[in-house]
Amino acid sequence: MRFYLTTHKRHWVRLTDKPLFLKSEHFVTAVKLGPAQGPYAVDSGGFSELQRHGCWTRSARQYVDDLRRIWEWVGPFDWAAPQDWMCEPIMIRGGTVGGQHFVGTRLSIAEHQRRTVANYLELRELAPDLPIVPVLQGWDLPDYERCVALYERAGIDLTREPTVGLGSVCRRQATREAAAIVTTLAGYGIRLHGFGFKTLGLAKVGHLMASADSAAWSSHARRRPPLPGHTHKNCANCIDYALTWRDRVLRGLPSQNQPILAP
């Protein structure tokens, strides 16, 4: 199981060989790109897109062009997420949570799932050579099972995919409901990637997933003093802190999970 550090600092790919998870937009805005030292995966930035606009502002063709540029200049990535549609209630109805404003798509979960599957099929047709992965979206377990069925009807056997993203779980990844979703889907033989999983979620179901990513190190650092010898106010943007946090998280997981989560 591969544990990716999520970061908005694109130049980190040149500084570490530990797995990193970065939004495509952070590469797209770069004038110059350098080769990666280690493995990395690419997030489409769907959460931010839907939160701010209630829809995707980039076409599938634009996204593929962005991915090709990243592949060429930074190096082959493990995989890239599609332009999926998250199914959190706040994403659909809109509103403000924790100071964050959500425009709201005003669409149904079923429509979000339909658009997620349709986008994956379009991206696969546009770029069959790129490792773009399918993502399961939903809110409760029956939703996710219906999403599996949507892929099946489209001719996609998710058990044959090396990675399948699990969306709309990160804000509740330590709950019994999320554990039931992961356990059930993993039981089907689907190799899941857990988007935005934190320590508690990893401890519960990390051993059932093929990979996971987390940006929790940054908020953790923001609430604490900087590392000894560091002169910045805090280490919320510090690669040394991120790598130290990652090592501590992996060491602190239950022993039966540690061999699975090691890079």
From TrEMBL:
Return the Pfam families for the record. DpdA
Q: Tell me the organism.
A: Streptomyces javensis
Query: Where do the DeoxyPurine in DNA protein A domain residues begin and end?
Result: 2-255
What is the name listed in the Swiss-Prot or TrEMBL entry for this protein? DeoxyPurine in DNA protein A domain-containing protein
Protein origin, superkingdom: Bacteria
Q: Which InterPro entries match?
A: DpdA
